[in-house]
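Internal ticket - ligand job 420, uridine-diphosphate-N-acetylglucosamine:
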Amino acid sequence: MDTLVIEGGKKLSGSIQVGGAKNAALPILFAAILTGGRCRLTNVPDLADIDTTVRLLTGMGVTGTHRRAEHTVELQAARLSNFEASYDLVRTMRASVLVLGPTLARFGEARVSLPGGCSIGARPVNLHLMALEKMGAQITLEGGYINAKASRLRGADITFDQISVGATENSLMAASLASGRTILRNCALEPEIIDLARFLKVLGAKIQGEGTPVITIEGVDALGGGDYSIIPDRIEAGTYLAAAAVTGGEIHLPGVSPELLGAVLDKLRECGAELAADSKGIRLSATGRQLKAVDISTLPFPGFPTDMQAQFMALMAATSGTSIITENIFENRFMHVAELMRLGADITVQGATAIVRGPAKLTGATVMATDLRASACLVLAGLAAEGITTVRRVYHLDRGYEKMETKLKACGATINRQVE
Ligand code: UD1
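stdout (structure tokens):
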């Protein structure tokens, strides 16, 4: 298992090229199941989760090539040899549940392992199943698997009683091939959903309203192939902005639109960081500035993203003042707290709220990554800490950040991977 060894206390300074969004690329890869045409996807990040998805798809009979260095994936689902996402794959990547909607819509059956809980919470899939049932699917749960069947899905009027990114995506894909009109209400508004809808439209889907709470889809009989480039990863971008802020440095992220990061940029400004953002990218400078604590409360987009909560907590630990951080999306997303405290952070957790008292004098220690964003949080804290921080179980980080240590090194950080 690889570890990252960080010698903290260096101010970041430089420019980082942010990769394609993992959370846009995953549903778009699964959407290739909807068509027999060839799909060519560019700006696909080179990440473990992308490998897992390509493996899952090729295991189902999709043909394709994955050119990692070129960030390109080509897929063609002319036919499938099986309709199953097995426990072994779903266990390592919950997004595999996105196999369900497109496979069922195109082939009339799908079998997907129930994801079960994960370290950040129970994460049920009831909303995904409810929407597909409303479209006429017969769903049974047996032996830990979701078995879904339908001769042809039909359009339906569906209201989600809770906002879910994944359920919106699964339903959007399924409705694209259903007969008639589907109206999805109380949809998630995340930019990754807009990206998926745009890709589906390239394939010939008839979708309106993506990025708003109500999405209307006129189902079509078949979709074609197409080329598509994935949007930049707003969470990777936000992580590097927070990294520059926590080290009192500066950073430029070319090509990242500020619209992707509204709430995160607002909070960084409120902290006292200097930000310049335009259509060409985002610049942050914390050089010579005394940042101050701010409160955050995670919410669905356009609110503050839960996927940035842990990284912001590292920043708040090192910043002067008390910050109240409330996690509203996942019930157990404070696993990083105990590890941050090993580095010297002063944090009290009460239910869904963490009270972070700063500035703590962070000092290097060995810490353990527990999930993807928690790992990023520990790297940020290590960059700010005095002395050596060793982050273990870096495989979590590799699920969502491409070459993080190389990118940080190029901006002056001392960070090295040790392969064990
Ligand atoms: C996606 C992102 C993940 C991010 C999350 C919230 C991907 C691959 N992952 O995950 O990085 O942290 O959005 O922004 O895009 N829920 C239910 N029933 C359901 C579905 C969800 O109760 O059927 C609950 C979840 O337990 C959670 C909340 O709804 O409390 C939001 O989850 P959801 O938006 O579905 O997250 P994901 O799509 O799994």
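Auto-summary: The pocket of uridine-diphosphate-N-acetylglucosamine is lined by residues 23, 26, 94-95, 121, 123-128, 162, 164-167, 188, 192, 306-307, 329-330 (CB under 6 Å). Residues 130 and 158 are 9 Å apart (CA to CA).
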